[in-house]
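Much of the work behind modern protein science is quiet bookkeeping, done one molecule at a time. The protein below has been through that process, and both of its lines are reproduced in full.
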Amino acid sequence: MRTCIYCRNPKIESEFSLEHVIPQCLGGALAPDVFKTRDVCKKCNNDLGLFVDASFEKSWFVSTQLQENARLQFNPAHPKALPLVCMGPCELKVPALKTEEVCESWLGPFGEQIYWLRPADENLYWYNGGNPRTTKTIESRAYFLFSINSVKNFGLTC
């Protein structure tokens, strides 16, 4: 039995997970091992990631800076997904929007517009992207409006 450094509860070994002291969105996955610990239980680690790191990452200032950094480091020879910026809920009347859904507007790194239709969550209405615990398991849909930022490399938008 070990004790979680956050909740201070004793847990069995299988209940612990890797915690990035520096959030992954700020390069924590690339940080030296001295900035990582396995003394955090999975529940505390998930709660911190979902409600602290994720909300920090989704702030307009931070997400804009992360997006700009990603664009500067983009390598067309080895393309990787670039982050989106949430502009928040919008009043756009998209096709088949249900009364229990919300439409969020997101911007891509090269001006792409994404309208994400997802279930509204009254408990976490303020949280961009919906409830982080359930958003990946609930069906949603999105509309993409592409733009071309570079005639030399159309693949950047894709």
Observations:
- The first strand starts at residue 2 and ends at 3.
